[in-house]
């Protein structure tokens, strides 16, 4: 007889536990790791507000950009400091070193890409050759969703 009482008590405890977990009483429940002060500060809507993810402010990004240009760290970006990165790029393009860029120097990378893609050396690219000039994209940093399980084929 005591077994029936024990089974009945276990069933009642399971029902009471399920009611507490899934009851939805409309007020936030305290989790063991959640301090009582934080629960008291929860909004009255019933859902505990998630801590916002800290983001870099625009001022911080701008300060970092400014620091990259301000080479001597005097708090001012001079014309020479501002143009330093552009001079390096210009020097790479100015192949003959005359201080001037003609169109061929400026378009050297594009010209080399065209010559490499024109496999039959006809001076024109067909669709297959043109497809090789497409920009190679970096893979997305977002996680990919797992493939969905294919539904089993119905047999007739």
Automatic annotation (TrEMBL):
Entry-linked CDD domains: EFh
Domain EF-hand, chain residue ranges per copy: 81-116
Pfam families in alphabetical order: EF-hand_5
Entry-linked InterPro entries: EF-hand-dom_pair, EF_Hand_1_Ca_BS, EF_hand_dom
Biased composition (Basic and acidic residues): 58-73
Region (Disordered): 44-73, 134-156
Biased composition (Low complexity): 44-57
Protein name, per record: Histidine kinase
Record keywords, A-Z: Kinase, Transferase
Any one GO molecular function term: kinase activity
């Amino acid at each position: 007889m005591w077994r029936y009482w024990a089974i009945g008590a276990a069933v009642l405890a399971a029902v009471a536990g399920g009611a507490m977990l899934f009851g939805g009483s409309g007020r936030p429940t305290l989790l063991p790791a959640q301090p009582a002060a934080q629960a008291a500060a929860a909004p009255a809507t019933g859902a505990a507000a998630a801590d916002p993810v800290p983001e870099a402010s625009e001022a911080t990004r701008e300060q970092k950009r400014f620091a990259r240009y301000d080479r001597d760290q005097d708090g001012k970006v001079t014309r020479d400091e501002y143009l330093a990165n552009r001079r390096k790029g210009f020097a790479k393009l100015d192949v003959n070193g005359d201080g001037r860029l003609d169109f061929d120097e400026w378009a050297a990378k594009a010209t080399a890409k065209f010559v490499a893609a024109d496999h039959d050396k006809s001076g024109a690219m067909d669709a297959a050759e043109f497809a090789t000039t497409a920009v190679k994209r970096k893979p997305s940093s977002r996680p990919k969703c797992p493939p969905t399980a294919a539904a089993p084929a119905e047999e007739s």
